[in-house]
Amino acid sequence: MSAKGDPIIVDTEQHFAMARRISGAYDTPDMSDSEYLELISSQLPEADRKVKDTLELVKGVYVPCGRDKVLNKICRRFVVRMLANRDGKRDDGRVFLITGESGAGKSRAIERMLAQNPALQSHARSFGVVKPVISVSLAGPCTLKILGRMILREAGYPIRQKIEQGELWDMLPQLLHVKKVLIIHIDETQHMLRHTESDQERKNLAKAFKGVMNYKAWPISFIMSGMPGTTELARLDEQIERRASFAFLPDISLPDERELVVRIIRQLSDVACLDAGAIISSDMPERIAHAAKYRYGRTAQVVVGAIQIALDHCDKTLSRDHFAMFYLDHSHARGLDQMNPFLVDDWQRLDPGSFLINMRDVQ
After folding, report:
1. What contacts 277, CB < 8 A, 6 or more positions away?
2. How many CA atoms lie within 13 A of 65 on its CB side?
3. What angle do CA 205, 247, 93 make, to 5 degrees?
4. Residue 157 contacts by C-beta under 8 Å, 6 or more apart in sequence?
């Protein structure tokens, strides 16, 4: 804090300038991240550059499904309830908890959900761009202090000087009010719960969130996504629980959702100009879903991986061999064809998603 008690704020450019001074990297001060990555990509052999360009198009495809409709409906109701006034003012913040297993495709689905809600889009004003929603993603164990700094940094307030955790969360809603932030999206929220194991730590966690939600001048709402255990957050406090909305992204269910797997294969293959007709008309959709542990996100990743193999071989038709080779690169199955779900007839005996094979199973 400064002598007057105001937080010391430094902007992102100052941070980059400091990093350049420390590293001595004065030779590329004006090169953006995208320009640098393009420079690196230009060093690839021409064939690899072509594969990369096509993969970028493939990875940009999102195949919608029923869960997207559910998410959009709950999000719409969540936003309307959040904006509804009581006696001329918004009365409190709310929480939307979105959960699913690893590989369910939560992050991409939420990104799409937020992009499709017209009330949550950024808009330019005379003083700059206003973002109703800011997102932070937790990559590991996270304290409230670290989370608070991440939120403020994303909102445009990188804080350099040491500030105590309580003071940080006290001033957070006021600063977010200035930026007109309505919703904080926290991805991989389970990392917060893993770090807060004692009753007192969890009470502090609930208290911090409630303090932001209950800020009378400008209540802040939360969208929290993560593993299924993330819903434990609602059990920490009755007030949080009664203000919460919930959505769970389920696994792909076969045979009912075979058509979803087929759409993923077809739409991604079409972008890569690959014929996937033989794959679709066989039992490969079932094998792909099994290898992906019946998770939406992992299913798309398996298909993208096989497409890359096909592009590497300059093939025009997507085949079972491409999926088998992809599996070899991402598992312990090299040299163990009997453990590869794309090579054996009795693939259903293999554990779903068994990329890491227990070698005792092959004795």
Report:
1. none
2. 28
3. 45
4. 7, 9, 175, 179
Q: Coil, strand or helix: which one is 22?
A: helix
Asked whether 173 and 208 are in contact (CB, 8 A), the reply is: no
Cα 332 off chain centre by: 27
Per DSSP (E only), the strands in the chain are 85-86, 89-90, 95-100, 123-125, 128-130, 133-137, 183-187, 221-226, 244-249
What is the β-pairing status of strands 123-125 and 128-130?
antiparallel
Q: From 329, 359, 352, select the one nearest 101 (Cα to Cα).
A: 352
- pLDDT tens for 311-349 read 999 999 999 999 999 999 888 778 888 889 999 999 999
pTM for this predicted structure: 0.84
Residue 187 identity = D
Residue 107: other Cβ atoms inside 10 A: 17
Assign 158 to helix, strand or coil.
coil
Q: What is the CA radius of gyration of the chain?
A: 24
71-115, pLDDT tens digit by residue?
Answer: 999 999 999 999 998 888 888 899 999 999 999 999 999 999 999
Instruction: Tell me the angle at which helices 144-155 and 199-213 cross, rounded to the nearest 10 degrees.
Output: 30
How distant, in Å, are the alpha carbons of 5, 78, 154, 270, 341 from that of 326? 57, 41, 37, 19, 11
Q: What is the distance between the alpha carbons of residues 196 and 141, in angstroms, rounded to a whole number?
A: 9
